[in-house]
Amino acid sequence: KEAQYLTAIRELISKDLSEPYSIYVYRYFLYQWADLCYMVSVVVCKLEPHRDGPMRGYIAMLAVRKEHRGRGIASKLVRMAMDGMIAKDADEIALETEIDNIPSLKLYERLGFLRTKRLHRYYLNGNSAYRMVLYLKEGVALKQTQMPYDPLY
C-alpha cells in the first residue's frame, strides 16, 4: 500500500498538521495497522485544449466510499477541482456519468453542469452515459473547433 498511498497521505497531512512527520512514522502505522487507515475519496482531473478549441477541464473520476456518502464530500471535491481548473483558465469542464446514477446527476446539475449528449453503451458494463458540461465563459459552447467532426470522439 505504501507506493499507492504514501505520497498522497504525506502531502495531505503536511498541509494540515504542524508536526513534520518522517516517512518512518507513516510506514510504522501503515505496515502494522493498514486496516485502520482510511482514504475516503478521490477526484481525478485534467485540463487541455479540446480539439484545438476551448481549454477543457475534464473530471475523469470521482469516488467516495459508500459509508462516507451524503456528507458533502463529493460536492467539496468537485468544487475544488472546478476552482483549480478555473484558476488555470479553463473555458469549460466536462465529464461523463451513468444515466441511471441519479445522485451523481443531481450533484453535477446542482453545480451548474448541463447534459449535452447521451452516449449509448458508453461504459464497459453496457450502461449508457450523459456527457455533462459546465460552460465557464460566455460563448464557449458556440466556439468552432479546428478539427473536423468525429462522432467517436
UniProtKB/TrEMBL annotation:
PROSITE patterns according to UniProt: GNAT
N-acetyltransferase domain residues:
1-137
Its keywords, alphabetically, are:
Acyltransferase, Transferase
Q: Which CDD domains match?
A: NAT_SF
GO CC terms in record:
NatC complex
Q: Pfam families, from UniProt?
A: Acetyltransf_1 (PF00583)
Q: Which InterPro entries match?
A: Acyl_CoA_acyltransferase (IPR016181), GNAT_dom (IPR000182), NAA30-like (IPR044542)
Q: Name one GO molecular function term.
A: protein-N-terminal amino-acid acetyltransferase activity
Q: Which Gene3D superfamilies match?
A: 3.40.630.30
Family, according to the entry, reads as follows: Belongs to the acetyltransferase family. MAK3 subfamily.
Q: What is the name of this protein?
A: N-acetyltransferase domain-containing protein
- This chain's source organism reads Aureobasidium vineae
